[in-house]
Structure formats: C-alpha cells, structure tokens
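Q: Hi! First time doing this. I have a protein sequence and I read that you can turn it into a structure. Is that right? Here it is:
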Amino acid sequence: MIDVREADLVASYPRRPEPTLRVNFVASIDGAVTVNGKSAGLGGPGDKMIFDTLRMLCDALVVAAGTVRTENYDALRLTGPAREWRRAHGLSEFPLMVVVSGSLDLDPEQLIFSDAPIRPLIVTHAGASADRRAALAEVADIVTVGEESVDLAAAVRELHARGATQLLCEGGPHLFGAMIAADLVDELCLTVSPRLVAGGAGRIAAGPDGPPREMSLAGLLADGDMLFLRYARSR
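A: Yes, that's right. Below is the predicted 3D structure, encoded as structure tokens:
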C-alpha cells in the first residue's frame, strides 16, 4: 500500500479525457459522515492533501447550500503552487464555485461569495424565491434548471456547455444521493477515518431508493491507519 506522502497525487486522481463527476467524502469506519455535525472531526493531514489536490484538478466545485452553511465555506482560493500548476496545464487560475440550492437560503455576505476570486454560480429551480434570487444575483450568476426542484442532469449539461467537464462534488449527503439517483456519479473518493463515532450522524449519501451502481476500486493510498479509496464507475 502506498503512503499518501510518497504518491504522485495528480497521477493518482487524474483528470480524465471524458466528462467526469467525482465525489469526495470522508466517513468513519462505522459509517458516520460527521462528528458534532461537521466533517472536519474525521479528517487528517493526508486527507487535507487529497482534498486540496482534488480542488486543484477540477474545473468546477459543486456543493449543496446546506453544506455551505454547516461547514461555513469560505472563498474557493487555491495556494500559489496550485494556481501555477493550473496555469501551466492550460486551466483557469481558479475553479468555478457552484452552489446547488432549491430555497436560495444563502447569505450573500458569506466569504464563499463576498471574497470569491471569480464570480460563483448558483444552481436553482424556477420556483425559488424571486426576492432571494435578486439578492444573490448581486454576488453570483444564477442558473435555473427544473420547475419545482433542481434538475441535476440539466445542471451538469450546463456546466459542460461552459467548459467545466471535470466536476468535483463535496456534498452534502442529500446532493450526493440525488446525484446517484440521477445516475450522474462517475467516481467516489472516500477517506476512511479510523474512528468509531456512533450517535446520530448520517451516512455519506441520503435520498430515494434505487438500483445499486457498480463501482471498481481504482486507487488505494494510506496515511497511517487512515485509508483513501478511489472508486470508478464500472461500464
């Protein structure tokens, strides 16, 4: 097993020639997705290395509004070396920040918007509040897909049309579950944290029942007792 510090992380988590939706999550060995309501209690240094690498490699980072609020997301700003790598590989200096929200219950003054290096995108549906839409239009571009709920497949097509074909989703569980239900997920990067959490913490995906999606193990790294799994869709 390869130690995460010895691995070429760009090669371990490659950008793919075809459009790809990659999901990144951390979970305890008993399946908890949070500790005291936040995912930070499950991570570690190796997890942070992969987290930062996946952000560097993506064209757009997709996250649900609930996760933006709960995890208190700040602006999507990369380190100098990460920005240099992107420029050297013909990518924009920063990935596009994409927030999925049906209610538009978002704070325009949160750093994810107010300190953004490039204007974020908010994906919503036609029934969302007109007042909230107007307030958020000051700090983000708003894309409407779906009448009464967000049409995630249409949202992915819109991002592809904008040139963002390598998509990274950081959750939360309901967005991940909806993406599975819509058959959109190509890869799952899963950090397995060597902790027993118990309690009422949920699992990494939540949503409607549906047929299982077969995945194949594409990569395995370690940092002590913490494991980093990459599963790719079996086609």
